[in-house]
Amino acid sequence: MIKLKPVTLEGHWVRLEPMTQSHAIDLVTAAEDGQLWGLWYTTVPTADEITTYIDTALTGQRDRTMLPWVVRELSTGQIVGSTRFHDIVPEIDRVEIGYTWFAKRWQRTHVNTACKLLQLSHAFDSLGCAVVGFRTDILNTDSQHAIDKLGAHRDGVIRHFQARRNGQPRDTMMYSILHSEWPRVRRILELRLRPPPPPDVGVR
Fold this sequence. Notes:
Helix content: 25-40%
CATH architecture: 3-Layer(aba) Sandwich
Shape: globular
Number of domains: 1
CATH superfamily: Gcn5-related N-acetyltransferase (GNAT)
CATH class: Alpha Beta
Oligomer: single chain
Radius of gyration: 16 Å
Structural class: alpha+beta
Distance between the termini: 46 Å
CATH topology: Aminopeptidase
Order of helices and strands: EEHHEEEHEHEEH
Strand order of the largest sheet: 1-2-3-4-5-6-8-7
Strand content: 25-35%
Number of helices: 5
């Protein structure tokens, strides 16, 4: 049975730091880059929502259903987003990766690939997970494409499964990666890794 506790994960030009309320201002700054709270397909906090957002994540951590991180990009030292393990089921050695978002200027860079490699390595190599899951809105084709590129298996659609931020019900596409599939997925991620963009990306 997996046993999770807050842990710092570092490598590939990023560091995943256990989320605390001390990260609130930096998370708000990251979310302001692209006004991410306005995205319909994910939940990103506004300045007014950040305290509750972090409290909810930390409650999930105490309840052993979540393990939240902030993401620090090491070439700039900036907090650039957040991600977490969620819907943790220790009895069957399962976690899901989600609640992932990055400041606009860091999207489609090395950051997401690096985070997934660190998280999947921790799940499979350190914790001994049997499976890691992902889920996304059926209408979020960009997210589906990204998960497909990982080599994750499409498990299917659960209809009327969750609520979008606007309260509308959504159908959810479910994915998974089994422990036996991890070496192939790791190789895909390693091949996709690339260095950070030039330093001026952090000040535009």
